[in-house]
Amino acid sequence: MPQPSDLLTRLAVSTVIFALRPDHSGRSVLWTPLVRRTREPQRGYWALPGGWLPPNEELEVAAARTLRATTGLAPKYLEQLYTFGQVDRSPGARVVSVVYWALVQSDEAARASAGPNVRWVPADTLPALAFDHNRIIEYALWRLRNKVEYAEIAHAFLGETFTLAELREVYEAVLQRSLDPANFRRQMIASGRLRETGERLAGAPHRPPRLYRYDTSAVTAESREPFMRERPAS
Amino acid sequence: MPQPSDLLTRLAVSTVIFALRPDHSGRSVLWTPLVRRTREPQRGYWALPGGWLPPNEELEVAAARTLRATTGLAPKYLEQLYTFGQVDRSPGARVVSVVYWALVQSDEAARASAGPNVRWVPADTLPALAFDHNRIIEYALWRLRNKVEYAEIAHAFLGETFTLAELREVYEAVLQRSLDPANFRRQMIASGRLRETGERLAGAPHRPPRLYRYDTSAVTAESREPFMRERPAS
DNA sequence: TCAAAAGTGTTGGGGATACACCCATGG
DNA sequence: CCATGGGTGTATCCCCAACACTTTTGA
Fold it and tell me: Which intervals hold domain Nudix hydrolase (chains A, B) (predicted)?
């Protein structure tokens, strides 16, 4: 069944990774890690983390593995984004890339490993990247911003427990607009997926906010998308 | 850069094709064409139309080509669905399938080519198919039913011009529930994407309905998704 | 003139937005 | 006691579902 000509097309897996970090002015914005290419083609350019698909490894596992390899982190959210296969997207060979996108906990990302060949950059102001990776990240950003509005994924940027102000800051950073705290609170509570921990966060010079936890069991079968696991592979 | 072990994974493109056809009771329901496998593995089973990806062919073009090969039709809507790559989804070899989904005009589909190895079946009551193709079609159905509710793709089942009753019948068939004609009319008009042709459809024993046309130019840049062309490749 | 579908009008409820206002804490 | 963010109350708007009602045709 295999034809000789097929040997020319290679299959790769790449991952767009998002975390929230403060920018120069202190506001939270989206950052993404890139790796420097040490080989041709496009040597020296920054590119998405990824690699060839090992024949015995699941696609999602390969995505989580490259994520861990470049950041030292485990994804809190991981989903297939799109498969890019333009004939001319890589010079010299036909490369089809199955691309995933991931969200990682922001405080973990702050102490994520970096090195001369790994660099975090603001996702909205990218330099010129290798191949079609600019387009890919733009698409991932579009998907993230869309999905945040109808799916409950924002908590993936946060730890186990969080305040509504922290959660709101995630939404504001992703959507790039400020939200009314009062209405935001009601929307989140109305979703039925936040559980009070009973604890509060003290220390700030004002009324201490309640701490919440995201309740995975409250996701109904109707609203769940196919192929969406709670704990992504790692 | 290629490693010898990669030669074991094969890349295929398959397409889930939808058209509306009357079922035994005369109501419009979704149908999809399947092809009988004439080789191992899974010989004799019905499967999605598809084939290996030729190294010099774009993914979307390959999808449109297999669509044409099995139905003789050109897609009115074509979009990438998902890439399936489970290690064990095909016995004997690692096969990664980039799957597309397509909508074809229903009156064309009625006279679509069929043969001993091509068969149209109701998409909601499938027999046991080859590989993981049942799961794939279920996912495509889920996507179609979701997308019909927020994107304007229903007209892809119809011809150049159509009445609001015909368009409503599409929605009702896809969503499997009846819709209020009065409210449906207002929603569609409010979308701003229907243009009156000025003509009416006569012949029935009642008030002749207006004929409309879908206005592709009315799609704003903000609402458009990345990678979505108006005329799919053929 | 009648049946049936096309098309219009009207009403009420639910959710989102805007914003006024009170609460609780550290300094 | 004051500044600050946490948290509640409430009026308004808009979209949508429900449904009564009028219009227009072929038979």
Answer: 8-145
